[in-house]
Design goal:
By secondary structure, this protein is an all-beta fold. The protein contains one helix and nine strands. The strands form two sheets. The protein has a five-stranded antiparallel beta sheet.
Length: 134
Amino acid sequence: MRASNIQSVSLAGGQVTIVGQVTLGPDDEVKLLHVWLAQPGYDGQAGAGLAIDYLATRPPGSEPFPEGNGKFEVTTPVQGQGAGVVGDFCDGPATVSAIAVVYNNGVIAEVLEWSRLAVLPEAQLDATAQGEAN
């Protein structure tokens, strides 16, 4: 059974880190995995956003999930010209989302999409809750 989840979002040391996992079946391969973090503006502040093509951040020729269990981790600076960041993240509510395109034997088999609400600076999310393909 294919499934996915976001396990945690943390804001520490000038970086935001998003950890998640994609559970795959036999002969499955993820060929696209995009991750977003969006934080609305409040109290007169502008919002912030992050958009990352996870597979493009991996070294050429490397395994997309080095631990072999579908786990992924995205880390990027929260301010300035970080990869895919617009605005400055701060303490408060945010939405984290991801989309994965799963291929089986070279053919698109499923598109997994999931989102979670988080409260920065740290949101340890229920890792047992699995999002399924929509």
